[in-house]
From TrEMBL:
GO cellular component: cytoplasm
Enzyme class: oxidoreductase
Any one Pfam family match given in the protein's UniProt record, by short name: SelR
Keywords annotated in UniProt: Metal-binding, Oxidoreductase, Zinc
Family assignment from sequence similarity: Belongs to the MsrB Met sulfoxide reductase family.
Identification of the protein by name: peptide-methionine (R)-S-oxide reductase
GO-annotated biological processes: protein repair; response to oxidative stress
Enzymatic reactions: L-methionyl-[protein] + [thioredoxin]-disulfide + H2O = L-methionyl-(R)-S-oxide-[protein] + [thioredoxin]-dithiol
UniProt xrefs under SUPFAM superfamilies: Mss4-like
Cofactor requirement: Zn(2+)
Top-level taxon: Bacteria
Length: 122
């Protein structure tokens, strides 16, 4: 995992390679309403679309469905039981998956802005 370490800042390494979390409401894309696509910061894999982004009130970008390949793994850190989500191509840590999202999936992919690159749709 994290074969892009050399091109990341220390904070990006913490989030993407060490499975950290960025601050809520203090990250680049939590309130982004511009149409476009979100890619993996490490490998440019297309992961999410603004069409599936919603305001979860959590302070992180939230999506109810991915458009790219996402890997899931159990995460028992921090005294919680969660589902970690990673880029399906390079396994970079993206965030977590919860079952409290909107219809039609009922899922909430809670993703760190730090793990993403945004490309606006023109």
């Amino acid at each position: 995992m994290c074969n892009c370490k050399n091109k990341l800042t220390d904070f990006e390494k913490y989030v993407i390679c060490e499975k950290g979390t960025e601050p809520a409401f203090n990250n680049e894309y939590w309130d982004n309403k511009t149409p476009g696509i979100y890619k993996c910061k490490c490998c440019d894999e297309v992961l999410f679309s603004s069409e599936h982004k919603f305001d979860s009130g959590t302070g992180w970008p939230s999506f109810y469905v991915p458009i790219g390949k996402i890997l899931e793994a159990p995460d028992f850190t921090g005294g919680m039981v969660r589902v970690e989500v990673m880029c399906g191509n390079c396994k970079a840590h993206l965030g977590h998956l919860f079952g409290d999202g909107p219809a039609p999936t009922g899922l909430r992919y809670c993703i760190n802005s730090t793990s993403l690159k945004f490309e606006p749709k023109y």
